[in-house]
Each structure stands twice: as C-alpha cells, then as structure tokens.
From TrEMBL, chain B:
Record bears the keyword Heme: yes
Cofactor(s) required for function per UniProt: heme
Organism, as annotated: Rhodanobacter glycinis
Cofactor binding mode and count: The heme is bound between the two transmembrane subunits.
Bilayer disposition of the protein: Multi-pass membrane protein
Subunit structure and binding partners: Part of an enzyme complex containing four subunits: a flavoprotein, an iron-sulfur protein, plus two membrane-anchoring proteins, SdhC and SdhD. The complex can form homotrimers.
Subcellular localization: Membrane
Protein's name according to its UniProt entry: Succinate dehydrogenase cytochrome b556 subunit
Length: 134, 131
C-alpha cells in the first residue's frame, strides 16, 4: 500500500461534496430581498426625508402629533423595519467579503442581527407609544 | 476561508482609479455609514416618545456644530446611496451595461447626490424660508 492510497479517505464524487454549499443555498433569496427592500426604501426614504424636512422648526407637540397620525405612524414603522432589514443584508455582504478570520466574521454577523432587531423593536415601540397615547 | 496567501478582495493595489470603482466603493461606504445613522433615527423616535424635555435635548444635540456636520455627512450618504441604488436597480433590469453608459451613470450618481444635498441644506439653512 503506497502513501497515496492512505491519504484518499473521501471517495465521494467532488460534486456530491460541493452540493449544498455556496450560492446553491439561499443566495438568490438574499439577493432578491435586498432589491425588494431597496425599491421599498426608495419610496419610504424619500417620504421620510420630506417628512423630517416638514418638521424642521416644529415644536414638540407638532412633531408628536405628526408622528401620531395613522398614515405617518404606519409608514414610519414600515420605513424603520425595511431600513434595518436592508442594512443587515448589506452589512452581511460587506462582512463576508472583507472579514477573513472566521470567528470574527461569525461574531460580527450575529452582532449586526442582534443590534438590528433591537433597533427595529425599539423604534416600533416608540412609534406605537407616540401613536397610541393621547 | 482565508488560510491562503493569494491576494484577496478588494484588489485596490492593482487597479488604476476610475469613477466606476469610486461609485462602487462609495456605495458600500455610504451603506455602512447609513447603517450607523439608522441608530440616530431610533434615538430621535425614543426621545420623541420620552417627552418634551428629552426631545428638546435631542434637538440641541443634532443642532450643535458636531451634530450638523454629522447630519450633512449622513444626508449626503443617504442621497448618494439613493441615487446609486436606483442606478444599480436599473442595471439589475439589464440596462446601462455599455462602458460609456456605465461611466456616465457613475458620474450621474455622484453629481446627483451632491446636487440633492446642496438643495436640501439650502432649504434648511435659508432663514425664514424653511417653515
């Protein structure tokens, strides 16, 4: 028995090993969701900028009353959720591309998801508190 | 993973700088900046929900010189990411892949973002004009 025969332990076809890895999993879903949230953010982002500009010199009561309007509260929650979703998808790609140490990559990927969920929940609670308390 | 000695992305050292590179890098950079800026939106909403005193404190923070500089930066980042994002969506449909069009649309994103930023801040800083 030569040394070469000992090294070859895995006799599976290389294709069998490769299937299920890389872009054959959920890459298309990620790509599509990023575009979908992007289109939503074009509309919601412009609405958000215009709304903030309208509140430029508003006092507290006016600002609160504006956010409390049903349509504004709805769109604001939609904006915040889409924003954090899109941000996580984008940051994920950046981290996967540039962080070449596996444990740092995983820690960062988990951290941005935790932060985004916390940020989204905090924003939604704040908007609901403003919208539902008279 | 990178247990290898071959060069890894981004290959900045081997390319001559050109506008398509700048627009692509800026898209990622502004994306990261905006992800951080999203925390400002959360802060604003939380302060608004917490009461008048809290909200006025928040307003004084973003109205301070440092706050205004950050806001100008974030607004440009938002407009750049918006313009270039629309450009990428158009390319996703399959349009604008000729090299001259690609270069032109890159410049359009950069120019459009600067124009939008200037317009918004002209509106904000015009005394009495902005209601």
């Amino acid at each position: 028995m030569s040394a070469k025969d000992v090294v070859v332990k895995d006799r599976r076809n290389p294709l069998k090993v490769a299937r299920g890895l890389g872009s054959s999993q959920s890459g298309v879903g990620h790509w599509w969701t990023q575009r979908l949230t992007a289109v939503a953010l074009v509309l919601l982002g412009v609405w958000f900028v215009v709304t903030v500009l309208c509140l430029l010199h508003a006092d507290y009561a006016t600002a609160r009353a504006t956010v409390a309007k049903p349509w504004n509260a709805l769109l604001l929650i939609a904006f915040v959720l889409t924003m954090f979703w899109h941000a996580v998808l984008g940051l994920q790609v950046v981290i996967e591309d540039y962080v070449h140490v596996r444990w740092k990559e995983v820690v960062l990927l988990v951290a941005i998801k935790f932060l985004a969920v916390l940020g989204a929940l905090a924003s939604v609670l704040a908007v609901l508190r403003i919208a539902l308390t008279p | 993973m990178a247990d290898t000695q071959r060069p890894l992305s981004p290959h900045l050292q081997v390319y001559r700088w050109q506008v398509q590179m700048v627009s692509s890098i800026l898209h990622r950079a502004t994306g990261i900046a905006l992800a951080v800026g999203s925390l400002l939106v959360v802060c604003g909403l939380l302060h608004l929900a917490a009461g008048e005193e809290s909200f006025n404190y928040f307003k004084s923070l973003i109205g301070s010189p440092v706050g205004l500089v950050l806001l100008v930066g974030w607004s440009w980042a938002l407009f750049y990411h918006l313009c270039n994002g629309i450009r990428h969506l158009v390319q996703d449909v399959g349009l604008g892949y000729g090299i001259p069009q690609f270069v032109r649309s890159s410049w359009l994103s950069v120019a459009g973002s600067i124009v939008l930023t200037v317009l918004v801040w002209a509106y904000v800083l015009t005394p009495g004009g902005a209601a």
